[in-house]
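Q: Protein A?
A:
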Amino acid sequence: MTLMSPAATGHAPATAPAGGSRSVVLRALLRNKLAVLALAVLALLLIAALFAPLVAPYDPNAQNLLLRLRPPAWQDGGSGAHLLGTDQLGRDMLSRVIYGARVSLLVGAGAALLAGVIGTVVGLASGYFGGWADRVLMRLADVQLAFPSLLLALAIVGFLGSGLWYVILVLGFTGWVSYARVVRSEVMSLRTRDFITEARAIGVTDVTIMRRHLLPNVMAPLATIGTLHVAAAIVAEASLSYLGLGVPKETVTWGAMLSDGQLYLGTSWWVAVFPGIALMLTSLAINITGDALRDVADPKAYRR
């Protein structure tokens, strides 16, 4: 059974119109010049992260103490061979910033995906079945919300140990609540619609109803939350790495670079400033994109 048309059900669709909805979303997104700029920044970061071995001029961990703390190319004493200068061990800052993008984007996307899957499953079950299932699942969400997410992540990572996949798992398992609450709210408003009632009447299973009729109708808010959660996960990973509890030291991360560079802010500012700028621009671009997606997902946006 497919989703019935608004004329047949007497209700407006829960999401953007199916016919040509992608082109409508794209046009609405392209009208937002700030969002286009943010997407361009993210595209550059993604390209740099994917092709880091080809883009980065040096091995990010290659040390040369004779070149330690060289300033950026545009300052006195700088060199075009190291555009952003070198750190306290003579490592090229540009190469390290590029390689740091790989870890940040992988952690952000992986944590958001894991949290989205968990939260969507919980939200669908809670909103569709209601009753004791809803009460139990939402109490579990309340228990997790009682703990600050970063503090909980610190405790879990401290117990499990450092590692890239550990960080992704921890940030994913500590971030599912927002997905679950939004999906639950959407599903509770949809489960009384005529097309859901008719699907039940002809014997469609609950799993099929949730998969074919409810899940497509909650994808728009999920995309918005997921985008914003990517930025939050990137900042959380940088915080863990800054404290020495993230990925191993030999893996280049912006948080670890910030931690190493804080001792040199007074004399060699670039060691901490450039990874900080990269972290800020990435988080800002992702948040702007998420805000734009939220505006496009608003039904009023399609009538502008």
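Q: Protein B?
A:
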Amino acid sequence: MSAFQKETVLSVRHWTESLFSFTATRDPGFRFQNGQFAMIGLEVEGKPLMRAYSMASANHEEALEFFSIKVQDGPLTSRLQKIREGDIILVGRKATGTLITGNLIPGKRLLLLSTGTGLAPFASLIKDPDVYENYETIVLAHGCRQVSELAYGEHLVEGLRNHEFFGPLIRDKLVYYPTVTREPFRNRGRITDLIASNQLFDDIGQGGLDIETDRIMLCGSPGMLEELHAMFAARGFVEGNHSQPGHFVIEKAFVQR
């Protein structure tokens, strides 16, 4: 278990029948950049059962936070969803991932496009003061099937807007755009379609995609990532990575949990 740190669960909150978040202690030696992920999990029959999870907490926060789906027959989440305050989880000692601002060339508007629990790395990034220093506008789009699944994101953004430090910082810079596909809501449709039709930008009162000023991060379902990758590439946007910054970056560590 030397590759993993044992941490204590501090709180658990169930948002819907299929979504929950939890916080845990953080080893003082655990370092990460906002937007990265680590391997986390549980000890099962004496062995570590691990999956990749983005940190939803920022790197300046003392506790770690994670946002998870519940997969009833999932090897890990069928167990993880039952954790309670005081339980022990395992956290990998090394953080990694492509959703960091250093993998993007400088721009003016940052689009954070997510579906489901793909919101997690962006929960970390929108708590980063440097993001607001480097971009004039940050657009956080979160697509879900049902309105209830937006609860975590709505709670997150509302908390930041009321935060003593972040409130003034984000008031004129952070645009939150939740959308659902299966229920009536003020924003309806898949993020891919809303961008392709320009509806998302019309709704927020801003101009459409501009390769000169827009930088993009993507995290969500494989289908959404594939569609948007093709769309952006067709428009001349170049994917960035650790060795060569680009116009957009994608987290490819999506796995069935």
